[in-house]
Specification:
Growth Hormone, Chain: A
Amino acid sequence: MIYFLAGVVAMAGLLFGYDEGVIAVAGSSLTHDFPMSDLARGFTTAAVPLGALVGCILGGRLTERFGRRRVLMGAAALFSCGALAAACVIAVWMLTIARFVLGLAIGVAAVVAPLYIAESAPLRIRGGLVSTYQLAITAGILLSYLTGLVVVGEGSWRVMFALGMVPGVAFLIGLVFLPESPRWLALQGRGSQAKASLHRLRGATTDVTAELAGIQAMADAEQRSAAHAPSLLAPWVRPALIIGTVLFFLQQLSGINAVIYYAPTIFRHAGLGSDKANVIATVGVGLVNFLVTILAMALIDRWGRRPLLSVGFAGTAATLILIAVAVMKPNVFPSWIIVVALFGYIASFAVSLGPLPHLMMSEVFPLSIRGAGMSAASASNWGFNFIVVFLFPLMLSTIGLAGAFTLFAVVCLGGLLFSITFAPETRGVSLEEIEAHLRAGEPLRSLGLAKTRTAPFAIGNRTPLP
């Protein structure tokens, strides 16, 4: 059941990726029907992250009150309605509103989906399962790019947008068959339902006594201190908030969504050639993103979070600098160098910067405010996503592609320093252990360095980094 749950919930990521990427390949057909200035195009494209910013703020509150599963069902309905509305618009402002609605769904799902998987997954495969959400995002992006190759002709953008309804309806149907998060049920004082949920997730014959005891102990502690519920700014919670928000700040300012939303435009500025060649190269970006994310899923629970973050930031910084230099020296570097370097950038991002912020924000926050914490981290994600996507067309027309990618490279170098200095290692550490570590006032970075652990809510043993 846990693999079925991860597959269904990850469809939120597929919808996220499709609705994010489709605007790139639909742009040519769309602007034929609705000519737009750089400012108008930037705002219409950025309506998704703007809606997601609002959605992630609402998502944290809604999931604490109504549970993970029911909130995702509401998001699935919004995905379907937003796709239908986007396909039927007759004016640019209507398309902007439709994409804002899609953004609401994406923002809610971006908070709840990783949380739901993390709270339901067994410790030993938690990292890989939560990363199915990021894999599904890359699959959705690739699917949207492939749609741009297959669906062509006048008004093809309407078909592209409408196709987003199909996974939206499938997502809603799949959620009907899933159990609620056992940790949320325990926090609500519904112990028998939490046990039933665990049995469904682990197997009817599996002994869940020890796992349930740890979950229930932490939930009871949270309930006893409900009158003094911690603030996100409480000194012992603040390290988790910093990790969650800074990782998403660095993820977005690495420039990834400038590439995802505007890949054909970037290739055109790089002098690649015809529109068809640009779309084919864009599909290549989506394919690399998808395949390397599969590799990341295999490495996250094997190598750990911190080493992968360091590798990812180093790789993105190096490839962005290469692209910037190649754009400034077109007589020295042929255009195919830029394509190869951009593929290298995507690979470096997909192996670490893509899945790890989503995974780590689902791990580091305390149970009683996990929804609120993930909401705050996602707000950082979508706020900076909106800024990058909105400003990128203006950046191209002012400082140019080389200038934009140089700025992104500087951020990635900062991310490398942050990873080495502050990032925690949560591999093999239960959610209850992580919270106990925070409550003890120990720095999060030391989490993966300790040889032993004597946390009151620890479940099982973890394997320290070599």
